[in-house]
Amino acid sequence: MQKQSYELITGLADRCTVHSIVYDGSEDIISFFWNVRKRVKRMLSEHPGIELIHLNNSMMAFFSLFLRNMVDIPVLLTVHGLDIVFPNVLFQRFVVPKLAKFDGVIAVSRSTAEECIRRRFKAECVDVVGNGVDHQLGDTPVDTAFLSRLEERLGLSLTCKKILLAIGRPVERKGFSWFLEEVLPRLEEDVVFILIGPQQKYFRPIRWLYRLLPRQLARSFVLMLGVSMDEPKVHAVLGTDACKGKGFWLSDLPHSEVVQLLKVADLFVMPNKKVDGDVEGFGLVALEATICATPVVASGIEGITDAVKDGENGFLLPSEDADAWVEKLTELLANRQALKRFGQQAQQYTRQHYGWDRMVDGYLAVFRRYIEKA
Q1: What is the phi/psi pair of residue 221, to 5°?
Q2: Please, which residues bridge with residue 316 across strands?
Q3: Cβ(224)–Cβ(86) under 8 Å?
Q4: Which of 64, 139, 277, 367 is at a distance of 20 to 30 A from 190, taking alpha carbons?
Q5: H or E segment to which residue 107 belongs
């Protein structure tokens, strides 16, 4: 969301006049939201020519509900996924209906748009503008020494190994423990799976608190904070004989090395599964893989289907169907030359269809339509 917001503001600034209010970390987050009303009023007073207000997530929108009665210009909201399906009764009953009263909503995927309409947002007021991806990732030169450093860190020779890569926090919807338990052990011995993602520093007290709270409140708590509830199981499965020497978790790679790993991996996997109250809003990380010429194999659910186009820049499989996953991965890894050719095709497709400029143009078209109607 932060990357999307930055690229949107930067891109719009090249095409029109933009006045932005963003959280830059110079103050605590509570103080920032507490003073939103004052900041907005000052901004509107200093720049009376403003023709439209855009709120880039539901949290900002919640603290800007006053705008509906304060201004007579269009006010639009972007929703990213969890910020609309958040499974809290009070949020769904009292906050979401108020968000639906803004002039329009921009969803990052068709799946997210459907969730809005399901919550009684007017269909004619819901637009879909997908996220983009940084094309420069694909132009980053390969570091020839990286593979040696990676082998040293893993304590494993990667010669003749086939690398599967996944990136993200081990929240339940990512399906990492499922993949490690149900798929990886059934793949050939020359297959290595690497997960890149943060590990919780304070997981034990969080888990203790989770057990004390009522079930619904606890669930809202972990989703709101992004707690990696799948982490203990990922650790446990990685420690089994079936995964030893095949599954690895790297938690502190710098971004430059993450890009290098995206380039040397044979396949990028997104084994997501459906979790009530949580969704994959778009799947930007899949585009980051394909722009590096690494094909993606992903669950064909939710916002992932807006980022991964089956047969174009990746392959979509049934969620939690281990047989289908084992069969497809085995088939693809059996011919690495064909896989590499598909990776080049995937990169080309992603370059043509997903870019930050394309996203900015989409937003600008929606903004202009609302301004003309006002």
Answers
A1: -60, -50
A2: 298
A3: yes
A4: 139
A5: strand 104-107
Domain 2-132+355-373 identical in fold to domain 136-353 = yes
Q: pTM value?
A: 0.84
Domain range list for the chain: 2-132+355-373, 136-353
pLDDT value at residue 216: 63
**CATH of segment(s) 2-132+355-373:** 3.40.50.2000
Mean pLDDT by 10 residues, the chain (374 residues): 87 94 84 90 94 92 89 94 82 91 94 93 95 90 91 92 94 94 96 90 59 62 62 90 93 89 96 86 91 96 94 96 98 96 96 93 96 91
- With contact defined as beta carbons under 8 Å apart, do 281 and 303 qualify? yes
User: What are the angstrom distances between the C-alpha of 104 and each of 53, 67, 70, 108, 220?
Assistant: 11, 13, 16, 13, 26
Q: Determine how many CB atoms are found less than 10 A away from the CB of residue 75.
A: 20
Give the pLDDT of residue 155.
92
Around 170, how many Cα atoms within 13 Å sit in the side-chain half-sphere?
A: 26
Please give the pLDDT value at position 208. 60
Contact assessment for residue 108 and residue 130, using Cβ atoms and an 8 Å cutoff: yes
The beta strand positions in 300-362, using DSSP E, are: 314-317
Cα(231)–Cα(88) distance, rounded to whole angstroms? 23
